[in-house]
């Protein structure tokens, strides 16, 4: 039987748990900035698997690394040393603030690792009573219990309460609120330098600087979540590099593996000896296949001029979107950095996304009213130009 969108939809609805909203197209092939559905229709992919395919689909260096590693050794577990894991850790340490790295398989998983590490840091420093976290309203950190509790959006908590104890939420870019939230039991502050799912909201440099000073003063850990904004997307390898504010701990995932699932917990010198053998582990994390893909992906980001490209294309795209904002009613705000861009509307984003998909352009949503653009860093300007042309038409109609 030849697969089609309809046949894959029927199979999915029969056998997969209904955790995702209804979907009508099955993407079956990708190359660069393009993907094709099972009925043969082509789309320009400006969502990138929600910020995963920063290198575009099937980047040749990642494909080659995965093919080679798959023929050599796919998995062994962390009972043994793993060469590509050590190589990827070195690559990340040489290009960031970090001195040590732990690998897992997803964003939520490395958030869990960061939360555990922060509590252990406090214990080791003799703050036996410190277990609390401050995170931000509109944040998103994942769906496991620690990560979803850290997520400052009630809709993700609903029906799963009670959440974990010890979390409180403060508004983004309000330093006073963060200061007031620090209590005797606080051990860390968790922030996305650019909030993704919560609406593409940028943490101001002065805010991050203020949090850094607050954490230093109270001996709290400053944790950055760069699961979505990391890996070249914003025009720097990691978004914290725009502000110059260095975290104690950073987590990333999504684009790190060039399409292969991986997460990384990066720590600076202050935290490198916090975990001891037996404190934290994962079966799959850092396995040869995922980390070989990661090495190829990070090298490609660093060596192919893609980060600079994200910065330049992002500037042009923001300019054009701001021009569209002048011509179209109902565009409240255009914001972003590099190729991580949000357009806030005065109405639900879903109908616009649906019409853009019909026209062959995949874009996403961040909250109810925000269109989310996460195009691949390899995209051509002509393709972005076409996207913006159609977007303007759809917004005007
Ligand atoms: N943190 C941020 C900023 C994210 O955007 C996401 C996912 O969208 C996560 C954490 C969770 O990552 P994952 O879905 O890989 O568990």
Describe the structure.
By secondary structure, the chain is an alpha/beta fold. It has two domains: 5-58 and 305-396, Aspartate Aminotransferase, domain 1 (Alpha-Beta Complex), CATH 3.90.1150.10; 61-303, Type I PLP-dependent aspartate aminotransferase-like (Major domain) (Aspartate Aminotransferase, domain 2). Helix content is 39%, strand content 18%. It has 13 helices and 17 strands. It has a seven-stranded mixed β-sheet with strand order 4-12-11-10-7-5-6, sandwiched between helices. A four-stranded mixed β-sheet has the order 1-2-3-15. Strand 16 and strand 17 form a beta hairpin. The longest helix has 22 residues, at 306-327. The chain is globular and about 60 Å long. Pyridoxal-5'-phosphate binds at residues 50, 106-108, 111, 140-142, 192, 196-197, 225, 227-228, 253. Pyridoxal-5'-phosphate is lined by residues 50, 106-108, 111, 140-142, 192, 196-197, 225, 227-228, 253.
Fold blueprint:
Layout: H1 5-15, E1 27-31, E2 34-37, E3 42-45, H2 48-51, H3 60-72, H4 83-95, E4 100-104, H5 107-124, E5 132-136, H6 145-150, E6 167-170, H7 175-181, E7 186-191, E8 194-195, E9 201-202, H8 205-218, E10 221-225, H9 240-243, E11 249-252, E12 263-267, H10 288-303, H11 306-327, E13 331-337, E14 340-345, H12 350-358, E15 361-362, E16 364-365, E17 370-373, H13 381-396
Helix pairs in contact: 3-10, 4-10, 11-13
Bound molecules: pyridoxal-5'-phosphate.
Ligand roster: pyridoxal-5'-phosphate
What integer value in Å does the Rg equal?
Answer: 21 Å
The helix/strand class is alpha/beta
Strand order of the largest sheet: 4-12-11-10-7-5-6
Low-confidence segments:
none
Count of individual beta strands: 17
Assign an overall shape: globular
SSE arrangement, N to C: HEEEHHHEHEHEHEEEHEHEEHHEEHEEEH
CATH class of the largest domain: Alpha Beta
Q: Which architecture of the largest domain does the CATH hierarchy give at level 2?
A: 3-Layer(aba) Sandwich
What's the multimeric state? single chain
CATH topology of the largest domain: Aspartate Aminotransferase, domain 2
């Amino acid at each position: 039987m030849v697969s089609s969108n309809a046949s894959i939809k029927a199979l999915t609805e029969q056998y997969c748990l209904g955790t995702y909203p209804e979907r009508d197209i099955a993407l079956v092939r990708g190359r660069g900035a393009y993907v094709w559905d099972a009925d043969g229709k082509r789309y320009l992919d400006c969502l990138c698997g929600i910020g995963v395919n920063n290198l575009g689909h099937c980047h040749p260096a990642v494909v080659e690394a995965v093919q080679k590693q798959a023929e050599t050794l796919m998995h062994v577990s962390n009972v043994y040393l793993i060469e590509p894991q050590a190589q990827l850790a070195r690559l990340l340490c040489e290009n960031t603030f970090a001195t040590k790295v732990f690998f897992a398989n997803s964003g939520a998983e490395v958030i869990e690792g960061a939360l555990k590490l922060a509590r252990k840091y406090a214990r080791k420093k003799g703050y036996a009573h410190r277990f609390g976290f401050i995170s931000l309203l509109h944040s998103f950190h994942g769906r496991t219990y620690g990560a979803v509790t850290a997520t400052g959006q009630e809709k993700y908590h609903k029906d799963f309460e009670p959440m974990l104890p010890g979390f409180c939420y403060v508004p983004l870019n309000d330093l006073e609120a963060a200061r007031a939230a620090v209590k005797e039991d606080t051990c860390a502050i968790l922030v996305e330098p650019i909030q993704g799912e919560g609406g593409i909201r940028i943490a101001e440099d002065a805010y991050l600087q203020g949090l850094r000073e607050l954490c230093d003063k109270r001996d709290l850990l400053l944790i950055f979540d760069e699961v979505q904004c990391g890996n070249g997307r914003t025009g720097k390898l990691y978004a914290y590099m725009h502000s110059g504010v260095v975290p104690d701990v950073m987590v990333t995932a999504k684009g790190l593996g060039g399409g292969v699932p991986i997460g990384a917990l990066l720590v600076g010198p202050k935290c490198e000896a916090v975990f001891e053998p037996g404190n934290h582990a994962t079966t799959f994390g850092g396995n040869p296949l995922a980390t070989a893909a990661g090495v190829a992906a990070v090298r490609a980001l660093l060596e192919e001029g893609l980060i600079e490209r994200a910065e330049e294309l992002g500037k042009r795209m923001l300019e054009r979107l701001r021009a569209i904002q002048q011509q179209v009613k109902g565009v409240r705000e255009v914001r972003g950095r590099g190729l991580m861009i949000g357009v806030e509307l005065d109405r639900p984003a879903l109908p616009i996304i649906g019409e853009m998909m019909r026209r062959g352009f995949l874009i996403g949503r961040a909250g109810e009213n925000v269109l989310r653009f996460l195009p691949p860093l390899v995209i051509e300007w002509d393709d972005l130009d076409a996207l913006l042309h159609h977007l303007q038409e759809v917004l005007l109609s």
